[in-house]
Amino acid sequence: MSMMLVPLELSALAARCGWLSPELAVGWRLARQAMDFFDGLDQVRIAATGYADTINALRALARYPKQGDVIIPSRPVPWDILFFHRITGTVLKVVLIRKHITLPQELLCIVDDLPHCSPESLCRYQEILDALVHGIIRDDLERFCHITEIRCRVLSPAAVQTPHSCPWCQSHNPPALFDQDGRICCPACSVLGLLWQTDQAFQR
Ligand SMILES: [Zn+2]
After folding, report:
1. Between 27 and 2, whose confidence is greater?
2. Is the model more confident about 202 or about 68?
3. Which domains does the chain show, CATH number per domain?
4. Gap from CA of 97 to ligand 1 centroid (Å)
5. Distance from the CA of 149 to the center of ligand 1, in angstroms?
6. What pLDDT was estimated at residue 1?
7. What separation in Å is there between the alpha carbon of 203 and the centre of ligand 1?
8. pLDDT of residue 201
9. How far is the CA of 78 from the centre of ligand 1 (A)?
10. Distance from the alpha carbon of residue 178 to the mean position of ligand 1, in angstroms
11. How much is the pTM?
12. Distance in Å, CA 55 to ligand 1 centroid
């Protein structure tokens, strides 16, 4: 048996999900990272796409607007996870490095047929899984993801010199304009995209 020590919270999460996968560990680790960065997740909107286990882990820690709420984008987006702190307008954009998260292909076949595996391949499977999960829990985050910090401030509609169209997509009278890291753009052109609209709809 593996002697790896897993943080209690992640271990409880794994028990609930049925198993401890690298993807689950990634979701837990990143939610913890955001929690430290924003001093809690009470005002943090989370959006995620991709691995079901990662999304499940994020749901377990999501607090805003209510417990377990994670937005799943309805169309492809160029990121894996967004953490949006509503108060400061700070966004953490996460892009996962997939080859450092998923098990090698030959091991994935083993997962599908665990009861019929030889003790040797089971042992090898366990070792590699342990090493992968262990690394995700403890290594530098940069090893398995890229995190970009973006400032996304909503400009007040009354602000002087605010253009009435988005300089990027030219859409007229967008519902709002953002100052994203010093550049003005509409919600759709911003990193938040539809996430912002969903958030507005929720507040109404
Ligand atoms: Zn635009």
Report:
1. 27
2. 68
3. 8-154 (3.30.1330.130), 155-198 (no CATH)
4. 28
5. 20
6. 41
7. 22
8. 61
9. 16
10. 10
11. 0.88
12. 28
How far away, in angstroms, is 101 Cα from ligand 1 center?
A: 34
Distance from the CA of 133 to the center of ligand 1, in angstroms? 40
Percent of the chain predicted with pLDDT > 70:
92
Predicted pLDDT of residue 113: 78
Q: What is the DSSP string of the chain?
A: -------HHHHHHHHHHSS--HHHHHHHHHHHHHHHHHTSSTTEEEEE-S-HHHHHHHHHH--SSSTT--B--SS--S-SEEEEETTTTEEEEEEE-GGGTSPPHHHHHHHHTGGGS-HHHHHHHHHHHHHHHHHHHHS-GGGTEEEEEEEEEEPPTT-TT--SB-TTT--BS-S--EEETTEEE-GGGSTTTHHHHHHHHHH-
Give the model's pLDDT for residue 118.
Answer: 85
39-53 pLDDT, tens digit each = 999 999 999 999 999
Ligand 1 centroid to Cα of residue 132, in Å, is 40
